[in-house]
Amino acid sequence: MKKILVTAALFLVGFAVQAQDKFMCRNANVYFNADGPTEKIEAKNGQGASVLDTKTGNMEFMVALKAFEFEKALMQEHFNENYVESDKFPKVVFKGTIQDFSKVNFKKDGVYPVQLKGKMTLHGVTNDMTADGTLEVKGGSVTGKSKFTIKCSDYKIEIPSLVKDKVNNVVTIQVTAPYKPM
Which domains does the chain have, with CATH numbers? Predict the structure, then answer.
Protein backbone atom coordinates (compact mmCIF):
# COMPACT_ATOMS: atom_id res chain seq x y z
CA MET A 1 0.00 0.00 0.00
CA LYS A 2 2.83 2.36 0.90
CA LYS A 3 4.47 1.75 -2.51
CA ILE A 4 1.22 2.64 -4.28
CA LEU A 5 0.92 5.92 -2.35
CA VAL A 6 4.56 6.83 -3.03
CA THR A 7 4.15 5.98 -6.74
CA ALA A 8 0.95 8.02 -6.95
CA ALA A 9 2.60 10.98 -5.20
CA LEU A 10 5.60 10.84 -7.55
CA PHE A 11 3.25 10.65 -10.55
CA LEU A 12 1.33 13.72 -9.37
CA VAL A 13 4.52 15.67 -8.69
CA GLY A 14 5.85 14.70 -12.12
CA PHE A 15 2.55 15.75 -13.73
CA ALA A 16 2.61 19.11 -11.92
CA VAL A 17 6.19 19.77 -13.03
CA GLN A 18 5.36 18.77 -16.61
CA ALA A 19 2.25 20.99 -16.60
CA GLN A 20 4.45 23.97 -15.72
CA ASP A 21 6.25 23.59 -19.05
CA LYS A 22 3.31 25.35 -20.69
CA PHE A 23 1.93 28.72 -19.76
CA MET A 24 -1.33 30.20 -20.96
CA CYS A 25 -2.75 33.70 -21.21
CA ARG A 26 -6.39 34.53 -21.93
CA ASN A 27 -6.33 38.25 -21.18
CA ALA A 28 -3.44 39.71 -23.12
CA ASN A 29 -3.67 43.43 -23.72
CA VAL A 30 -3.10 44.49 -27.31
CA TYR A 31 -2.94 48.17 -28.19
CA PHE A 32 -2.47 49.59 -31.64
CA ASN A 33 -1.87 53.04 -33.01
CA ALA A 34 -2.29 54.07 -36.64
CA ASP A 35 -2.35 57.84 -36.15
CA GLY A 36 -2.17 59.85 -39.31
CA PRO A 37 -1.16 63.51 -39.54
CA THR A 38 -4.69 64.73 -38.84
CA GLU A 39 -6.42 61.95 -36.91
CA LYS A 40 -5.86 59.99 -33.69
CA ILE A 41 -6.49 56.31 -34.43
CA GLU A 42 -5.93 53.84 -31.64
CA ALA A 43 -7.68 50.84 -30.17
CA LYS A 44 -7.24 48.34 -27.37
CA ASN A 45 -8.21 44.75 -26.83
CA GLY A 46 -7.90 42.86 -23.54
CA GLN A 47 -8.87 39.44 -24.87
CA GLY A 48 -5.71 38.16 -26.54
CA ALA A 49 -4.96 34.47 -25.96
CA SER A 50 -1.59 32.78 -26.03
CA VAL A 51 0.25 29.59 -25.15
CA LEU A 52 3.97 29.54 -24.36
CA ASP A 53 5.94 26.29 -24.16
CA THR A 54 8.93 26.81 -21.87
CA LYS A 55 10.58 23.57 -23.00
CA THR A 56 10.68 24.39 -26.70
CA GLY A 57 10.28 28.17 -26.86
CA ASN A 58 7.27 27.79 -29.14
CA MET A 59 4.54 30.38 -28.82
CA GLU A 60 1.12 30.93 -30.33
CA PHE A 61 -0.93 34.09 -30.01
CA MET A 62 -4.44 34.91 -31.20
CA VAL A 63 -6.61 38.01 -30.94
CA ALA A 64 -10.19 38.49 -32.15
CA LEU A 65 -10.44 41.63 -34.29
CA LYS A 66 -14.00 42.49 -33.23
CA ALA A 67 -12.81 42.79 -29.62
CA PHE A 68 -10.80 45.94 -30.38
CA GLU A 69 -12.37 48.98 -28.78
CA PHE A 70 -12.03 52.45 -30.28
CA GLU A 71 -12.78 55.83 -28.76
CA LYS A 72 -15.29 56.49 -31.55
CA ALA A 73 -17.89 53.89 -32.53
CA LEU A 74 -17.68 54.91 -36.19
CA MET A 75 -13.93 54.14 -36.24
CA GLN A 76 -14.63 50.71 -34.80
CA GLU A 77 -17.27 50.09 -37.45
CA HIS A 78 -14.95 51.20 -40.27
CA PHE A 79 -12.09 49.12 -38.85
CA ASN A 80 -14.20 45.94 -38.80
CA GLU A 81 -16.16 46.44 -42.01
CA ASN A 82 -13.85 48.33 -44.36
CA TYR A 83 -10.27 47.64 -43.29
CA VAL A 84 -9.78 44.24 -41.61
CA GLU A 85 -13.10 42.74 -42.75
CA SER A 86 -13.48 40.95 -39.43
CA ASP A 87 -16.55 38.95 -40.52
CA LYS A 88 -14.43 37.32 -43.23
CA PHE A 89 -11.10 37.34 -41.30
CA PRO A 90 -12.09 37.25 -37.60
CA LYS A 91 -8.67 36.95 -35.95
CA VAL A 92 -4.96 37.63 -36.07
CA VAL A 93 -2.72 34.63 -35.38
CA PHE A 94 1.01 34.53 -34.64
CA LYS A 95 2.88 31.21 -34.46
CA GLY A 96 6.56 31.35 -33.73
CA THR A 97 9.53 30.66 -31.53
CA ILE A 98 11.66 32.55 -29.05
CA GLN A 99 14.99 32.75 -30.89
CA ASP A 100 17.28 33.33 -27.90
CA PHE A 101 15.35 30.87 -25.76
CA SER A 102 18.39 29.51 -23.89
CA LYS A 103 18.87 32.94 -22.25
CA VAL A 104 15.55 32.70 -20.38
CA ASN A 105 15.65 30.97 -16.99
CA PHE A 106 12.02 30.21 -16.17
CA LYS A 107 13.07 29.11 -12.67
CA LYS A 108 14.69 32.43 -11.75
CA ASP A 109 12.91 35.76 -11.34
CA GLY A 110 14.13 38.39 -13.76
CA VAL A 111 13.47 40.28 -16.98
CA TYR A 112 14.87 38.58 -20.07
CA PRO A 113 15.17 40.26 -23.49
CA VAL A 114 13.91 37.97 -26.27
CA GLN A 115 13.32 37.96 -29.98
CA LEU A 116 10.30 36.22 -31.49
CA LYS A 117 10.40 34.87 -35.00
CA GLY A 118 7.48 33.29 -36.80
CA LYS A 119 4.52 33.89 -39.04
CA MET A 120 1.63 36.26 -38.52
CA THR A 121 -1.68 35.86 -40.33
CA LEU A 122 -3.90 38.93 -40.67
CA HIS A 123 -6.61 39.69 -43.23
CA GLY A 124 -6.00 36.32 -44.91
CA VAL A 125 -2.31 37.09 -45.52
CA THR A 126 0.56 35.28 -43.78
CA ASN A 127 3.95 36.99 -43.50
CA ASP A 128 7.22 36.23 -41.75
CA MET A 129 7.63 38.36 -38.68
CA THR A 130 10.34 39.16 -36.16
CA ALA A 131 9.69 41.16 -32.99
CA ASP A 132 11.77 42.09 -29.96
CA GLY A 133 10.30 41.81 -26.50
CA THR A 134 10.85 40.77 -22.91
CA LEU A 135 9.77 37.90 -20.71
CA GLU A 136 9.50 38.74 -17.03
CA VAL A 137 9.60 35.75 -14.70
CA LYS A 138 8.21 36.54 -11.27
CA GLY A 139 6.87 34.21 -8.61
CA GLY A 140 6.17 31.34 -10.98
CA SER A 141 4.35 33.49 -13.54
CA VAL A 142 5.60 34.92 -16.82
CA THR A 143 4.67 38.23 -18.46
CA GLY A 144 5.53 38.74 -22.09
CA LYS A 145 5.82 42.22 -23.60
CA SER A 146 6.53 43.35 -27.12
CA LYS A 147 6.26 46.47 -29.26
CA PHE A 148 6.55 46.25 -33.04
CA THR A 149 5.21 47.71 -36.27
CA ILE A 150 3.46 46.27 -39.28
CA LYS A 151 2.43 47.78 -42.59
CA CYS A 152 -1.24 47.58 -43.58
CA SER A 153 -0.20 47.18 -47.21
CA ASP A 154 1.82 44.03 -46.32
CA TYR A 155 -1.47 42.42 -45.28
CA LYS A 156 -3.52 43.76 -48.20
CA ILE A 157 -5.42 46.15 -45.96
CA GLU A 158 -6.31 49.02 -48.24
CA ILE A 159 -6.54 52.58 -47.00
CA PRO A 160 -8.89 54.56 -49.26
CA SER A 161 -7.32 57.63 -50.88
CA LEU A 162 -9.99 59.78 -49.25
CA VAL A 163 -8.53 59.06 -45.78
CA LYS A 164 -4.82 58.45 -46.56
CA ASP A 165 -3.92 61.63 -44.66
CA LYS A 166 -5.81 60.35 -41.59
CA VAL A 167 -4.70 56.70 -41.34
CA ASN A 168 -1.06 55.65 -41.20
CA ASN A 169 -0.01 52.62 -43.26
CA VAL A 170 2.49 51.77 -40.49
CA VAL A 171 0.76 50.54 -37.35
CA THR A 172 2.50 50.36 -33.96
CA ILE A 173 1.37 47.42 -31.83
CA GLN A 174 2.07 46.84 -28.12
CA VAL A 175 1.31 43.53 -26.43
CA THR A 176 1.35 42.62 -22.73
CA ALA A 177 0.55 38.98 -21.97
CA PRO A 178 0.35 37.80 -18.33
CA TYR A 179 0.89 34.02 -18.48
CA LYS A 180 -0.05 31.50 -15.81
CA PRO A 181 1.04 27.85 -15.61
CA MET A 182 -1.37 25.49 -17.36
Answer: 22-181 (2.40.128.110)
